[in-house]
Prior knowledge:
The protein is of the alpha/beta class. The protein folds into 2 domains: 13-257, Aspartate Aminotransferase, domain 2, CATH 3.40.640.10; 259-397, Aspartate Aminotransferase, domain 1 (Alpha-Beta Complex), CATH 3.90.1150. Helix content is 37%, strand content 13%. The chain has helices at 13-23, 32-45, 56-66, 84-91, 110-116, 136-145, 197-207, 213-217, 245-256, 258-276, 313-326, 356-362, 376-396; strands spanning 49-53, 74-78, 95-99, 121-127, 149-153, 161-162, 165-166, 173-177, 190-194, 282-283, 292-293, 299-303, 365-368. The strands form 3 sheets. A 7-stranded mixed β-sheet has the order 1-9-8-5-4-2-3, sandwiched between helices. A 3-stranded antiparallel β-sheet has the order 7-6-11, with no helix packed on it. The protein has a 3-stranded antiparallel β-sheet with strand order 10-12-13. β6 and β7 form a beta hairpin. The two termini are 42 Å apart.
Amino acid sequence: MTGIPLSAPDITQAEIDAVTAVLRTNRLSLGPELEAFEAGMAAYHGVRGAVAVSSGTAGLHLALLALGIGEGCEVIVPSFTFVAVANAVHYVGATPVFVDIDPVTLNLDPVLIELAITPRTRAILVVHTFGVPAEMDRIRQIAERHSLAVIEDACEAIGAEYDSRKAGSFGDLAVFGFYPNKQITTGEGGCVLTRDPNLAERLRSLRNHGRSAQRALTAEDDHGSAANSTRFEHVEIGYNYRLSELASALGRVQLSRIDEILSFRRASAERYQALLGEIPGIELPPTSLPRRSISWFVYVVRLGSTPEGGERPSALRDRVQAALASHGIATARYFAPIHLQPAWSSDPAARGLRLLHTEAIAARTLALPFFNRITSNQQEQVAEALSAAIEELWFLTRPTVS
Length: 402
Ligand SMILES: *Cc1c(COP(=O)(O)O)cnc(C)c1O
């Protein structure tokens, strides 16, 4: 029996050809593929400034730096998300302020955002969780009212729409990630979008060792075609967060296939919906929400509680996960709250914090295998194994009747 992975990249001959073609050139960094990938991201989102970087996390770091956020600043973030969100705030010396989520969309609750604002708040870092867009109109209104910046973490949401506008086109800055489990991949990589040409220039400089903006754009000097006078001019302390030509070529082809990829993922989500709808004791993710078009990143179900007197929800979830693993089916907890992570739980930003929806939902979530090329047969196997596991565990954990 071959196993079913949680995720898998979808690489066609076109990607292989594009990456191979780069290898036959002398330009392996800062070349035409980077420019083409950035132009593609800009065009797809209708946002002129697109700066590709080496990871989504690098993009979050640069977005915060470009806004001048640092020590003494607070940034509002969710805890029900990937740990990189809080880590990036930490990198710049600022304080993450963890805010609870809406239990339906799993995104930051605008009412709670507003309650968390203090005189030190500088930005709202809003994540479009699992590809479901956050309530961007209300979040932007709150940001305007309090003169805050909005950074969108669209790493899970490429192609999602809110009011027919693409996720990533609402914020002062928006960050995308292209790790292999994302809708499209560059192996490792990310991209920051902004309409502000000054922010875009700053991002280009920071990702390339703080070189002056013009110098940061090109690799001309490496090819001896330009005067060398400014090559080692570093206007500020920067980073090496560049995306290689190989990765950019991969991203360019993946982006050209995005419509096909997103519709395949939507069809797979709908197939799960049909297969799992009859199983008692699990809650399926919403497939349609007002004003939104979802970009399917992962397929996450919530397990119910065992009958009264039974196990804690997280213990039940862990047993279902183990049962599926015994059938070779990979699953994952999405997400373990950041404020409860060992790396964060004793930080002043997290210590003693209770986030009711975040904690209750995180105890019950289980991400099922979900990727571009998942077959209906694989999905049927998952549904069968999940149904059997739940039935068995409910029976085993039922309190004995006297
Ligand atoms: C994937 C992801 C990132 C970026 O991760 P990298 O591994 O650094 O590319 C950032 N935020 C969220 C919410 C993500 O899901």
